[in-house]
Amino acid sequence: ILVGFLPSTKAFADTGDSLLYAYEIATLRDSLEYERRINRKRQRDMLRRNLPTFLSLKAAGGTVFPTKDFVSGDLNIPFYKSAALKFGIASVGDQWQDIAYGMPYYGIGIYVADFGNRPSGYSIGRPVSVYLLQGATLFRFNDRLMLNYEWNIGVSMGWKPYDPFDNPMNACIGSEVNVHGGVGIHLKWLASQHLDINIGADVTHFSNGASRMPNAGLNMASGFIEIGYYFNRKEALNRYNPRLTPPRYDAHFTSDFSLTVSSLSSRQKITDKETGEEIPNMYIDRKFKVLGFN
Questions:
Q1: Is the peptide bond prior to 280 cis by the omega test (within 30 degrees of 0)?
Q2: In terms of DSSP bridges, do strands 53-64 and 105-114 run parallel, antiparallel, or are they unpaired?
Q3: Per residue in 179-211, is it b (16+ CB within 10 Å) or e — as a string?
Q4: Best CA proximity match to 268, nearest among 282, 254, 258, 255
Q5: Do 124 and 170 meet the contact criterion of CB atoms below 8 Å apart?
Q6: 1 has a pLDDT exceeding 50
Q7: Which residues have a Cβ under 8 Å from the Cβ of 116 and sit 6 or more positions away?
Q8: Is residue 244 within 8 Å of residue 200, measured between CB atoms?
Q9: What is the residue-wise DSSP string for 9-41?
Q10: Alpha helices (runs of H) in the chain, residue ranges in sequence order
Q11: Sequential DSSP letters for 64-104
């Protein structure tokens, strides 16, 4: 009877092995799918991190450096005022990158400056800028007080540039649109869960990169006070972990490639608005075309 059952037993064993193999394959597939789902969830969680956002209002007052006759002597600007409205996204502090890079924040700002009344022919305008900003902490004195830096770069409009007829003395600004660049340092005090107060100083530069002459530019320095309101910082304050450290980094070489092609057209004559006649100009009118590749 046992001998009669032997072939059936072997067949049963083979069937069992096949079922076990199929089960292992299915389990492996399920594990891989589970791992993929976990990875996708982690990626979604990273994208949905409840990053603190803030809105701030900045008021500043300062002076314009007398780098040209246009803004020096009797024409100097001893005081100008400006205001900026900013929106940004801050770090949480639950990743080593946040700690290593000083809790960086990023955002966008709108800036307006007022240089006061100027004599006819010496106008500057009232520029309005839109810029990108980035900042971080340089030093933490305690949990509520820290020393921060911030820099910004953008584009400014609303200037009254040099014009040989209407604004002939403006040797600083030669175009209606200019680059806005600035950098500053400030003390940041966490007044409450939602409120920050910043006090500091910054420098600002306006110019067009000599794409249109004249282009001495404006260089300014100011002190400022800023009040920021955070919408969802409670969770971030609870998750902040200053003990996080970067992982091991193996030094290695990297290589970069960059190609830039540019062309320049220039002329030293201007057109009289009334007669249409070309007359000599003390400033060369230059225009650039630039193509870059990285």
A1: no
A2: unpaired
A3: bbbbebebebebeeeeebebebebebbbbbeeb
A4: 282
A5: yes
A6: no
A7: 77, 79, 80
A8: no
A9: HHHHHHHHHHHHHHHHHHHHHHHHHHHHHHHHH
A10: 2-47, 96-100, 234-239
A11: E---SGGGSGGG--S-EEEEEEEEEE---S-SHHHHHTTS-
Contact 149, 136 (CB under 8 A): yes
The two three-digit tokens of residue 243, written as one number: 């003990």
The letter for the amino acid at 218 is L
Q: Which residues contact 180 (CB under 8 A, 6 or more apart)?
A: 111, 127, 129, 131, 152, 153, 154, 155, 156, 204, 205, 206
Q: Tell me the two tokens of residue 226.
A: 């800023």
Q: Residue 87 corresponds to which tokens in the numbers above?
A: 């929106």
Task: Assess contact for 287 and 264: CB atoms under 8 A.
Answer: yes
- Residue 131 tokens read as 């810029």
Tens of pLDDT, residue by residue over 114-166, are 998 877 667 888 999 999 999 999 999 998 999 999 999 999 999 998 887 78
**Of 173, 172, 152, the residue nearest 110 (C-alpha):** 152
23-67 per-position pLDDT tens digit? 666 676 666 666 777 666 666 565 556 789 999 999 999 999 998
Residues 269 and 279: their CA atoms lie apart, in Å, by 5
pTM of the model: 0.73
Handedness of CA 101, 104, 106, 110 (dihedral sign): negative
Sign of the alpha-carbon torsion through 156, 162, 167, 172: positive
Closest by CA to 242, choosing from 148, 137, 88, 150, is 137
Closest by Cα among 294, 261, 267 to 279: 267
